[in-house]
Amino acid sequence: MNKPDLDRVEQPERLSYIHPESRKFEVFGRPKTRHPIQLEFSKEGLLLRLYLVLNQRAATELRGQSLWSLARAGIERVWQRDFLLSPELEEAFLNFVQRQQPADLSSAVLYLDERVKLALDEAKALGQAEVLPKLPLRLELKVAGPTASPTLHLIKSIVTGQRRAVRMYFTPLEIFPSHVGSALWRRFWGIFRYGHLETMGFNWSPAAPGYIVLNSKLNEGRIGRVAAHELGHILGLGDAYAAPYRFFYEHPGSENYLMNSNGELAEEEFIMFLRAHTVNKAQFFPWRFSWARVKSGAKEEANYYRRKAKAAKIQRQAQRAKRRARRNQPADLDRRPDKEAPSEQVEKL
Length: 349
Prior knowledge:
The strands form 2 sheets. Strands 1, 2, 5, 6, 7, 8 and 9 form a 7-stranded mixed beta sheet that branches. A two-stranded antiparallel ribbon has the order 3-4. It has 11 helices and 9 strands. The model is unreliable at 1-31 and 339-349 (pLDDT under 50). The chain is an alpha/beta fold. 41% of the residues lie in helices and 15% in strands.
């Protein structure tokens, strides 16, 4: 990586990376202070500031830990890490800085050069031929609540001009899985903006990223990974698994992706995340249509939800039977000597 000339504002070899679509938008400068999601370049790399408001069920304990603490651990594990600085990631990073913080573009170039120098020193110390530099992503979480009404909290923030929060609801779900959504006034027309069925109920933007509904019935091993996945939607990523709105097409090579199997955040996903905050539009994995795949996928999906509905019905019946048995169980009478029957008292005499 060549040392940049600080006397020149433009860096031809760097600016050639800028994606053409990013030039279609007006430069807004640094992240808006009222936005719930704020991503910016700093001296420590990329800093993601996220503001959440929780409902009261978030404080419910599961094996000695609250549901929110389990979800937070999963979010921080996935969304706070270092990524190997490949040419594709370098391009996405510089695109973002030029789009959102144009005054810091020279500083970003210098920062990348410093990361390369550190990698070269590390390779020399380890006796290796090459060590790829890393781009760190740091997460700063601000949380409000638990509160009785996250929606009321959001309305107050809008009226008073304060920073808005992403609403996160912990709710027991029997049939449908955890999901995200947008406010009613933002739904449906997202399909005209993006051309994806996935945006029928979820129309993303950095200013209005939507809300999260997490299944509070998940076990402690899954709730953190599911929370990190749903947060991926709030940060501008689409699904990669064979969902109905993707015509049951799974993105090739995404078996271990966060947006497929709740795995780790892959480089491709991180680049898409940067791109979403560069052009202020959600990013989606490509899909392909096939009648055979849609037919088999729809049949499998219907059978899956039929089984879930049947299991939920059996569980509700068992719970009702248990409550009836508890109500009909005779109470233990405390038979004291002064309440004994007259015949028993005669026998004692």
